[in-house]
Amino acid sequence: MSVDGWMTGTKTPFEKGGRPRQWAGGFAAFAIAMTGIAAHAQPSDPRKSGTEYLSPATRALQSNDAENPAMLWVKAGEALFNEKPGADRKSCADCHTATVRPLKGIAAGYPRFSIAANRPLNLSMQINLCRQQHQKAATLQHESRELVSLETYVAHQSRGQPIAPWRDARMSQAFINGERHFKTRIGALDLSCADCHDRQAGKQLAGNVIPQAHPTAYPLYRLEWQGVGTLSRRIRNCMSGVRAEPFAHASAEMIELETYLASRAAGMTLETPGVRP
Q: Fewest C-beta in 10 Å: which of 7, 24, 73, 249?
């Protein structure tokens, strides 16, 4: 789905049951802000994926599935996807087949509003909600190997798809709050996300190039972590780096910031799983 299609009303999937879209007055500010973002999705688009800032060696590692270490998480996630962990003896694969609820494109639309949870959710939260509701299984701990593997596998099925933030009035406040979080200075260093990722993008920090903060490759493998982590983990790392109290996993603030970041990247290609320094 192109950004232009997303902005101009091209029909997109909605909640199960085909419920109608609900357009609220507060959505106007969201739509106006998104028009500016959509305008970037042209041949002159100044936005860059973090992949463009990688060294040739790291980029080659990411592009070769036989060498990309994150593919181990994809394989582990695929095995978990086919397990039947709960009382209902159902696997994720029982519901998500090639013809019914296929995975392709799903990850590109998160965060999104969940009717069942009555709040915006990111992909890992949705996976846990599905485990509770459809498998009668225990939820997985945030950033656990199992949950990250499942999220990486699901996101990998949308590799090559354009990031398409969910068009829903109920996400407008999350976008607005997320933009505020992105631009608010925090911590002992008194820095905002925008101070680095807008004003200093492309410059060096501790030997690495500062990217533009487009979440095109999450979950991804960081050489620093020696493992795969989610966007939430990276945000928390950044907040700790400026000596601020990190947002909790699955908190409203975290999902709001993730919503804004996804909106900034609308139309860019999903690359999961990425590799970063």
A: 24
